[in-house]
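Retry 2 of 3 after timeout on previous attempt. Resubmitting structure tokens to design endpoint.
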């Protein structure tokens, strides 16, 4: 799902002298995936790298001057420092296609591409990289895509989700939202008092309170991950009432995808584990400001 509060996390951990470099100029973006085998990192110098395969695969430099990386299936998206969104499809060395300008967030899911513009307007296209954009809403501060669902947060903190075609009707999900995440038939919201809520099923399903003191909420498959304001990362697997497993300390970001978990430390080290919740961590890269899983 999304990197809901990296800047907030960095600010919290900076108080303890732990914060490393942080992403500047981009709003929260999707960092969790749905079980792909790609890992992306944004480095402190603005270079974006992606690897495909196991955690020990070789990094491929994708672009420079980047402020956000998005991964989904065989697609890679980057948002460059000048506000241009680019997407490529296929291998790691495929050709970039220019998608939109004046962008502050890019989102990918399956055959859908979404952009949130500087003026708060959100557009989504479905199909090929050259498909036609459909305006989804305006006055927004976050955009999230997953399958046939689209989630947004408006400037007044209301979370909305639609399901089906790009012109489906919006359903109001939550007030006072500062983050939204979608995965399968699950919807997660992080509200302003640090409480993380998740629902499973239809858009009007009942909310389940998952955790307090949260600064980042991530969903993937039947896993839920949270990053607490203490820098502790927890993941649960199974039903919404499953038990939490403590995964890491001194983290400023968490990412989930299938049976992979990623964490970014305040010193810029990015680690990924694959398998069960108690699997062994693998150091992926240093000088990282954002970690993304496909």
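Retry 2 succeeded. Sequence:
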């Amino acid at each position: 799902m999304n990197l809901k509060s990296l800047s907030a996390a960095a600010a919290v951990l900076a108080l303890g002298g732990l914060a490393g470099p942080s992403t500047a100029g981009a709003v929260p973006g999707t960092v969790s995936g749905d079980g792909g085998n790609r890992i992306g990192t944004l480095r402190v110098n603005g270079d974006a790298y992606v690897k495909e395969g196991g955690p020990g695969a070789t990094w491929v430099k994708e672009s420079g001057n980047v402020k956000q990386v998005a991964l989904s299936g065989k697609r890679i998206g980057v948002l460059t420092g000048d506000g241009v969104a680019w997407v490529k499809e296929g291998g790691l060395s495929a050709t970039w296609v220019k998608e939109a300008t004046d962008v502050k967030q890019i989102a990918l899911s399956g055959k859908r591409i979404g952009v949130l513009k500087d003026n708060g307007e959100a557009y989504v296209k479905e199909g090929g990289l050259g498909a036609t954009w459909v305006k989804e809403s305006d006055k927004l501060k976050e955009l999230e895509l997953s399958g046939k669902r689209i989630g947004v947060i408006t400037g007044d903190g209301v979370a909305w989700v639609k399901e089906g075609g790009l012109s489906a009707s919006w359903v109001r999900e939550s007030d006072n939202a500062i983050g939204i995440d979608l995965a399968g038939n699950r919807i997660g919201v992080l509200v302003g008092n640090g409480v993380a809520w998740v629902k499973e099923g239809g858009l009007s399903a009942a909310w389940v309170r998952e955790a307090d003191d949260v600064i980042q909420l991530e969903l993937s498959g039947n896993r839920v991950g949270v990053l607490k304001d203490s820098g502790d990362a927890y993941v649960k697997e199974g039903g919404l009432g499953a038990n939490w497993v403590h995964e890491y300390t001194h983290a400023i970001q968490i990412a989930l995808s299938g049976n992979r978990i990623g964490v970014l430390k305040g010193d810029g080290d990015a680690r990924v584990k694959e398998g069960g919740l108690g699997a062994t961590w693998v150091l992926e890269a240093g000088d990282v400001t954002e970690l993304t899983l496909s």
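Attempt log closed. Residues 1-24 have pLDDT under 50 and may be disordered.
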